[in-house]
Design goal:
The complex is a heterodimer of chains A (413) and B (571).
Chain A lengths: L1 E3 L1 H9 L2 H8 L4 E2 H7 L3 H10 L3 E4 L2 E4 L7 H10 L6 H9 L3 E3 L2 H8 L4 E2 L4 H6 L6 E2 L18 H15 L3 E2 L5 E3 H4 L20 E3 L8 H13 L14 H4 L2 E3 L4 H10 L5 E10 L11 E10 L5 H16 L4 E5 L5 E11 L3 E11 L1 H4 L8 E6 L1 H9 L12 H6 L4
Parallel strand pairs in A: 6-7, 8-12
Antiparallel strand pairs in A: 1-5, 2-4, 3-4, 9-11, 12-13, 13-17, 14-15, 15-16, 16-17
Helix pairs in contact in A: 1-5, 2-4, 5-6
Chain B lengths: L17 E5 H8 L5 H6 L7 E7 L2 E6 L10 H11 L10 E10 L9 E8 L5 H18 L6 E7 L7 E6 L17 H7 L1 H6 L9 E6 L4 E4 L3 E2 L13 E7 L2 H17 L3 E9 L2 E5 L5 E6 H8 L5 H10 L3 E5 L2 E6 L9 H12 L19 H15 L3 E2 L5 E2 L1 H6 L10 E2 L9 E2 L4 H9 L8 E12 L7 E12 L5 H14 L5 E4 L5 E11 L2 E9 L1 H6 L6 E7 H9 L1
Parallel strand pairs in B: 4-7, 4-12, 17-21
Antiparallel strand pairs in B: 1-3, 2-3, 5-11, 5-12, 6-11, 7-8, 8-9, 9-10, 12-13, 14-16, 15-16, 18-20, 21-22, 22-26, 23-24, 24-25, 25-26
Helix pairs in contact in B: 1-3, 4-7, 8-10, 9-10
The chains are: A alpha+beta (413), B alpha+beta (571).
Chain lengths: 413, 571
């Protein structure tokens, strides 16, 4: 089997060059001029002369007779219709490189002509033979085989979106270690070593390692003085003997506020907005609402101009940004290290008022020993709760799901 | 902040007291009818409360302040509400003299050295008073008293006590009395062994050669603090008219507020307070002392912090509602406040009381307009890129706990035990150490999903904790990435290609060097080397490890130190 070469296809479409030349010659024409007007002039002249259609006289081309349909023309048309050719014309076209032998695959493709086929092949597309086959219809309503894409863990993805949102809101991410000293977990937050307020939550203690190092002596002595007698903060202090040994005890971080305290001591930009998304640990009885390990999202806002109105404003902004609702209400709250404090409730269309976060202005007994004498608003979000609502989870343990099926099937939100 | 964790999820304050109150009793204490909706939406907020549940007339109320034991009773809540509903101003408490003496024997010094007492007479005890008294006692000793360690409270029928009372110690077998709710006489040793309260609280007396005892002049035992009262003197019923109250512990800073918080509600109920002389060697202490305490607030400070523009008379009016006595003096307000409050340490604390009286719902929230630039931490941003790459390569991310067990870290991984960060107060053997590798977590995940479709290709990015003497916290968090692939048949080159795709796309040049790692099959493990440093390990998991995780299909994978990679690329 043979098929047209690119040149053959062109001649079939545009006509053979010799025919074009002969058709063009109405009156004698200088060769130079004809060369400019006719494509493939040399080939055209060669074959026009062979066909006795033209002659050259004094540098001019003269038409001898009107061109007729040639065997070459006939041959090209036959090949394009995939018809068999006689030997003579076959050799002529091969010699003129207007046709070539087809490969086996194309031959195979030609066998498909007139049949109903399943697979559309590159050969059918290239040869145009797709026009002469019938493509079998598929059952397009059938579902394909299940495939599982690579995906983020849904809760981790949720935390990522929270992180991105906070960055958009102008917050800078803080860092801090998972194993903390009691100093940063409690003492720097003005929770007295012997006072019940230190027990506001159950905390883990460590068997190993036991003690860490305390920060710079200046900070330690200011925290100590504030606990003992209020230092120069205007507070009464707790009125007891502060023990550096207890403060150096190590423990798994119980709340992200430890990071905020570290950041304040490290130095902050003013105005400043900071956040942390941190793993925290508490020895709770494990049930549907309590895990020993959970994430907290919290942070601080620092500026001399801040007031309680701004505190409520920050909480309201979070409600809008993280839950999409403007229906909020506030109540008083208590955090051992803030005063005044407020809690945020947002209205969920189905679940009613949900406690979603809280904030307070850090006590001066916390900020001043760390070197900050302007208002610092500390805030936190009930992020696990929001994640559970968003992911439609009833049991907090499922946030760290070990169920591959659930992970595979959970839509990316 | 921790609290943010809401009702059904993690609470902020795990020790937040929940108290039960009779709605009608509460209203009669307030002296005004308040519809339930209004109580829930408005009035209860004045006492930092939230109504958790309503069952007929029984209300369950969370009090969101662990430092205000004065609020943990119907009487305490009623005081705050009444101040805003027509009865403002300082509640006054008169304390008469009972002339009753409690002698403190120096023998208690090393065991439980301090006691403070009070007498309340002419009580008309009904079920509400009784249940509130018992509940308040329990909540104070549990939360404020650190489960009786710092504060243990006893309430007695005064008519059965013959003063003076002595606070002393006895040998464990040195005395016999009938403990509360029991019939037969027991020695303190027997009580600690057999009585439910003895078993619950005996750790507080552990190692003491003698036990504290409170005894009257007739030799009648009042109680064995901090364990149990006597059934004879220490039983308060509806017939009791006069009560004797005591708190024992180690520090007057907790004992005095606890006593005040217990007796002031009884005075609110019409009881007559009388003082007791606590005689210590060389020192006399008269309790309860309910004289109001003094503080002051500056109007400028108030307005600057609140963002409100209050006039001095507004501040006075709002503080009177919060049960202060307020006297303006120039730009300062001199204040008297009730002795049962022990939470006021700074002007700041007064500001909040003003705001609560003002009503949070009337304060306009204003978003601060601050020009700041947001920024993600660098290691988080880098972890995101690595995670994106792993996802692009078709792998499912998982998330597991940082806390795990030594069995998972060492035994199941066929590794010799090495030092890790260990928890002391373990609550479950599943969570007693911090992970020092991510591989056990991803293998555990596979072991839970044996009936799910294979191949399973999962990864985790997270922090592990390493011990490091040089660090301030003697530990270091290290960001890692672990990947495992499991299928009926797997090839090492599959994970090797995964590693190559990840590292080359992070722009990292690395080499692999054959190594021996007990968790992997011999001859099928390699160290991943970057600039001559090992930054991870790759290989096929040893069948011994698979069997210890109950895994039945081959697993290959790698673990990388993302922290090191990040620091290397940063240079």
């Amino acid at each position: 089997m043979y098929r047209l070469t690119e040149e053959g296809k062109r001649y079939l479409r545009d006509g053979l060059p010799e025919t074009n030349l002969a058709n063009f010659l109405k009156a004698p024409l200088p060769i130079k001029e004809a060369r400019e007007k006719i494509k493939n002039f040399n080939i055209a002249l060669l074959w026009a002369k062979k066909n006795n259609w033209v002659k050259i006289e004094k540098g001019k081309l003269i038409l001898l007779k009107e061109p007729t349909k040639t065997a070459a023309q006939e041959g090209l048309e036959m090949v394009s219709r995939a018809e068999e050719l006689g030997d003579e014309i076959l050799n002529l076209l091969l010699k003129r490189k207007l046709i070539e032998k087809e490969t086996g695959i194309v031959t195979e493709a030609k066998k498909m002509i007139g049949k109903e086929i399943t697979n559309l092949t590159p050969e059918l597309i290239k040869t145009g033979l797709w026009k002469r086959v019938r493509l079998k219809p598929y059952n397009v309503t059938a579902k394909g085989i299940k495939i599982y894409p690579g995906k983020r863990q849904p809760y981790n993805h949720f935390l990522f979106l929270v992180r991105r949102k906070l960055v958009e809101l102008g917050f800078r991410e803080m860092t801090g270690p998972m194993i903390e000293s009691e100093f940063w977990n409690f003492d720097a937050l003005y929770q007295a070593q012997d006072h019940p307020s230190r027990d506001w939550a159950q905390t883990y203690t460590l068997k190993h390692p036991k003690h860490g190092k305390l920060p710079k002596p200046r900070i330690v002595s200011q925290v100590k003085a504030t606990h003992e007698n209020g230092w120069k903060t205007g507070s009464t202090g707790w009125g007891y003997k502060w023990d550096p040994k207890k403060a150096s005890q190590l423990m798994p971080r119980a709340h992200g506020t430890a990071c905020s305290a570290r950041q304040l001591a490290k130095g902050v930009e003013i105005p400043g907005k900071y956040f942390a998304i941190k793993r925290c640990f508490r020895p709770d009885v494990i049930d549907a609402t309590h895990g020993v390990e959970f994430n907290q999202v919290e942070g601080i806002v620092i500026d001399p101009s801040l007031t309680f109105k701004n505190l409520l404003g920050i909480l309201k902004q979070f409600a809008i940004e993280f839950t999409g609702t403007k229906k909020v209400k506030f109540s008083s709250g208590y955090f051992p290290f803030t005063e005044p404090s407020a809690e945020l409730y947002v209205k969920h269309p189905k679940m009613g008022w949900i406690e979603s976060g809280g904030a307070g202005i850090f006590r001066p007994e916390l900020t001043e020993p760390l070197g900050i004498d302007i208002p610092v608003i500390a805030w936190g979000l009930g992020i696990d709760r929001l994640a559970m609502i968003k992911l439609d989870i009833k049991d907090i343990r499922e946030l760290f799901s070990k169920n591959l099926k659930w992970l595979r099937e959970m839509p990316v939100i | 902040m921790p609290y943010m964790q809401t009702r059904i999820s993690k609470r902020l304050c795990d020790n937040m007291p929940t108290i039960e109150v009779n709605y009608e009793d509460l209203l009669s204490l307030v002296g005004k009818h308040i519809p339930l909706d209004e109580l829930r939406e408005k009035a209860i907020l004045y006492a930092k409360g939230e109504i958790e549940a309503v069952d007929g007339v029984n209300l369950k109320i969370d009090i969101k302040d662990t430092n205000r034991p004065d609020l943990w009773s119907a009487e305490g809540i009623a005081r705050e509400i009444a101040g805003r509903y027509g009865k403002p101003g300082l509640p006054e408490y008169r304390v008469g003299k009972s002339n009753i003496v409690v002698n403190v024997d120096p023998k208690v010094n090393k065991i439980r050295p301090l006691i403070v007492c009070a007498v309340v007479r002419n009580l008309k005890i009904n079920d509400d008073i009784l249940s509130q008294m018992i509940q308040l006692q329990e909540k104070i000793s549990l939360t404020f008293g650190r489960n009786r360690k710092e504060v243990a409270i006893g309430v007695y029928d005064m008519r059965r006590i013959k003063p003076p009372v002595k606070y002393t110690t006895v040998k464990p077998n040195g005395i016999k009395f009938v403990p509360l709710e029991f019939k037969q006489k027991m020695t303190p040793r027997e009580i600690l062994k057999k009585h439910p309260k003895g078993k619950e609280f005996r750790h507080l007396l552990e190692g003491c050669p003698e036990y504290p005892i409170l005894i009257d002049s007739a030799g009648e035992v009042l109680s064995l603090p901090p364990i149990i009262n006597s059934n004879y003197t220490g039983k308060v019923t509806r017939k009791t008219r006069d009560v004797f109250v005591e708190c024992t512990g180690f520090d007057f800073r907790f004992l005095v507020p606890a006593l005040n918080a217990i007796v002031s509600p009884l005075a609110d109920r019409g009881g007559r307070l009388e003082s007791v002389e606590n005689i210590y060697p060389g020192k006399k202490m008269v309790t309860p002392d309910l004289r109001p305490k003094k503080t002051r607030v500056h109007i400028d400070y108030m307005n600057r912090l609140s963002g409100l523009n209050l006039k001095i008379r507004d501040v006075c009016r709002l503080l009177e509602k919060a049960r202060y006595k307020a006297k303006p003096k120039g730009k300062v307000v001199d204040l008297l406040y009730p002795a049962y409050r022990q939470d006021i340490m700074h002007e700041r604390d007064v500001v909040e009381d003003v705001l609560i009286s003002y009503g949070y719902d009337k304060i306009e929230p204003i978003v601060p307009r601050l020009a700041t630039i947001g920024k993600q931490s660098e290691i988080e941003a880098f972890s995101e890129s690595a995670a994106d790459m792993m996802i692009g390569l078709g792998n499912q991310e998982i998330l597991s706990y940082t806390l795990t067990s030594k069995k998972n870290l060492f035994d199941r991984m066929n590794l010799p035990e090495s030092p890790v960060v260990e928890i002391e107060n373990i609550i479950s053997s599943n969570w007693c150490v911090f992970r020092n590798s991510l591989l056990p977590g991803v293998l555990e995940f596979l072991s839970r999903n044996k009936n799910r479709e294979y191949p399973q290709r999962i990864f985790e990015i997270g922090d592990i904790i390493l011990l490091d003497e040089r660090e301030e916290t003697k530990t270091r968090d290290v960001r890692k990435l672990a990947f495992v692939l499991s299928n009926t048949t797997i090839g090492y080159e599959e994970v090797s290609s995964m590693l190559d795709a990840l590292l080359s796309n992070l722009g990292l040049k690395y080499s692999l060097k054959q190594s021996n790692h007990p968790s992997f099959i011999k001859g099928r493990a390699a160290s991943i080397i970057v600039s001559g440093k090992e930054i991870g390990v790759i290989g096929e998991i040893h069948p011994l490890v698979l069997s210890r995780w109950n895994l039945e299909k081959p697993v290959a994978g790698f673990e990388l130190n993302l922290q090191q990679i990040f620091e290397k690329l940063k240079k």
